[in-house]
Amino acid sequence: MNDMKPMPRLDRPCWLDMPRGVRLRIMPPDGCAMREVLAVAGRGLAAARDADPDMDTDTLEATRFVLLVKALAHMIVVAWEGVGDATGKPLRLSPQALERLMDIDDIAVAFWKKATAPTMEEIRNG
Q1: b/e per residue, 91-122, with b = 16+ CB within 10 A?
Q2: What is the pLDDT of residues 41-89, one digit of tens each?
Q3: Whole-model pTM?
Q4: Which residues is 16 bridged to in the sheet?
Q5: What's the farthest any 2 CA atoms get from each other in the chain?
Q6: Dist. CA 43–CA 57, nearest whole Å
Q7: DSSP H or E stretch at residue 15
Q8: Are the C-beta atoms of 48 and 63 separated by less than 8 Å?
């Protein structure tokens, strides 16, 4: 019996199941997309350091992760399910709403792990 889950194809969108009943439809990132994510996050981190040159290491690492997650989300999320407003009405995907969703720790961590897993596996296997 094969316990391996099928790998997402990089040429078409796939759904990722997130905590709290959220589903995100993404275009799986390739190496070019990941380089762009790193560049965007790097520029944001440089700006944060300029604003607070005495930023401690923990804050710096947390800021780096937030910037990476949000840059990746903006680049690859094309649709979502299970995201609603305060009344429970389904919320339309927008850049602002996506950023707010990525501010939820368990969703941000799950998103990063699941969205980057195929690319990281490809990099490891060379």
Answers
A1: bebeeeebeebbeeeebbebbbebbbebbeee
A2: 999 999 999 999 999 999 999 999 999 999 999 999 999 999 999 998 9
A3: 0.83
A4: 24
A5: 55
A6: 17
A7: strand 14-17
A8: yes
Q: Is 67 helix (H, G, I), strand (E, B) or coil?
A: helix
96, two tokens: 């602002």
**Sign of dihedral through CA atoms 46, 51, 53, 55?**
negative
Spatial contact of 10 and 75, defined as CB atoms under 8 Å apart = no
Per-residue pLDDT tens for 78-116?
A: 999 999 999 989 999 999 999 999 999 999 999 999 999
Instruction: Decide: 76 and 26 in contact? Cβ < 8 Å.
Output: yes
Q: Which helix (H) or strand (E) holds 32?
A: helix 31-51
